Amino acid sequence: QVQLVESGGGLVQPGGSLKLSCAASGSISRVNDMGWSRQAPGKQRELVAQITRGGTINYLDSVKGRFTISRDNAKNTVDLQMNSLKPEDTAVYYCNADIRTLGISQNYWGQGTQVTVSS
Predict the structure, then answer these.
(1) Pick from 57, 54, 107, 114: which is nearest to 89 by CA?
(2) Are strands 57-59 and 67-72 parallel, antiparallel or unpaired?
(3) Residue 119 and residue 6: Cα distance in Å, rounded?
(4) 74, HSE (Cβ side, Cα atoms, 13 Å)
(5) CA gyration radius, the chain
(6) Tens digit of each residue's pLDDT (9 = 90 or more) over 88-100
(7) What span, in angstroms and rounded, lies between the C-alpha atoms of 83 and 80?
(8) How confident is the model at residue 27 (pLDDT cuts 50, 70, 90)?
(9) 92 and 76 in contact (C-beta within 8 Å)?
(10) DSSP letter at 63?
């Protein structure tokens, strides 16, 4: 059984910062790509940032220069540092990871954590 557990969401004023963390646990052989997506009310889920096991990173254009994704391969964790937050960043943020267990690779999702940017 594999689980992704997120933490770090909350309420922050515009211009503020938050750090999201996600840890994968269970019968894991290897964690490949890891990432963060978000879904605002009434909108489709969108990929915010993704990082490969080797460290190649992609960002959604609207968060470039403000958000930083990082991972620890030894601990199977991925973080998202969010700076200069804007009201339009308000959404439920989901961690996801491509995880290999018992010879099978599968994409897993966390339960989501709410980020609200408001004054």
Answers:
(1) 114
(2) unpaired
(3) 24
(4) 0
(5) 14
(6) 999 999 999 999 9
(7) 10
(8) very high
(9) no
(10) G
Chain centroid to CA 101: 21
Average pLDDT value for the chain = 97
Question: For 63, left (φ over 0), alpha (ψ -120 to 50), or beta?
Answer: alpha
Phi, psi of 28 (to 5 degrees): -105, 130
End-to-end CA distance of the chain: 40
pLDDT tens-place string over residues 53-98 = 999 999 999 999 999 999 999 999 999 999 999 999 999 999 999 9
Q: Is 116 helix (H, G, I), strand (E, B) or coil?
A: strand
- How far is C-alpha 5 from the geometric centre of its chain's CA atoms? 10
Place of tokens 């408001």: 118
Distance separating alpha carbons of residues 84 and 100, to the nearest angstrom: 35
Per the listing, tokens 């996600």 go with 22
DSSP state of 49: E
